[in-house]
Amino acid sequence: MRRIEIKSANVNVELDYFLQGSVIKGTVDNSVTEVRSYFKVDSEETEAKVIEVIMLAKKGCFAESLVKNAIPLVSTCLLNGNEISVT
Fold it and tell me: What is the pLDDT of residue 2?
């Protein structure tokens, strides 16, 4: 990471989601329609230096990568110690 002085930094993440259907009827479903991140930084460094650090932090963020890039999900379920198929 770059060595710059940051007085304070805060990141808030919001998301829009929905949950629909019924667990009882077996029709439950959900989705996230948008994720937003808000960075608040206080620093006396130049804007260019702070922007560089924020860009590096975003590039190294697993959560942002997970949202931006579709990846395979591998899920293993065990019932009484035995692997079962749940699709």
Answer: 74
Residue 70 · residue 32 · CB < 8 Å: no
DSSP reduced 3-state for 75: coil
Where residue 55 sits, what CATH number does that domain have?
A: 3.30.300.20
What total number of domains does the chain contain?
1
CB 31 within 8 A of CB 17: yes
Query: What pTM was computed for the model?
Result: 0.73
pLDDT exceeding 70 applies to what percent of the chain? Answer: 99
Residue 11 near residue 38 (C-beta atoms within 8 A): yes
Distance CA(79)–CA(65), nearest Å, equals: 32
